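In this supplementary section we document a worked example of the pipeline. Step one takes a protein sequence of length 153 as its only input; no multiple sequence alignment statistics are reported here. Step two produces a three-dimensional model, which step three serialises into structure tokens for compact storage. The input and output of this example are shown verbatim.
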Amino acid sequence: ENNLALIQKIPTPITPMQIDRETRHITLAYFNQKSTVDYIGVVQGLPVCFDAKECAETTFHLQNVHPHQVQFMREFEDQEGIVFFLIYFSRENFFYYLPFRTFRTFWERADQGGRRSFRLDELDLTWTIPSEQGLMVPYLDMLNRDLQERADL
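The serialised model returned by step three reads:
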């Protein structure tokens, strides 16, 4: 609306197997191919990609993210892109901006035989996205913070 970003939802390619005739909703389908991320675009000239997840517990299981997605995200970041996750913790009713560098520490821990999840109490809650009237998920302020912290590294 304010020309701050251009973000596109990447459709997940599926083949419908069953469709409810009344509602015309797909009730059974299978994935045609591996997908990468949910959203990709540009923010003020910077390439951005992110995945949106929902977590009903206080523990996020890494099985919700696939190795080919992590590989794509690493390669995107290697090309100077900004990569992150938006996680909705539904029981606590808040959105969380998870920088990819933080996610990688949990992923690498699992690769080294550690826990295959991370708990809410392991997260820096200053990355919680404050809700704003009229905005679905106002993540651009957190993206700006992410950029500033990347510059300081």
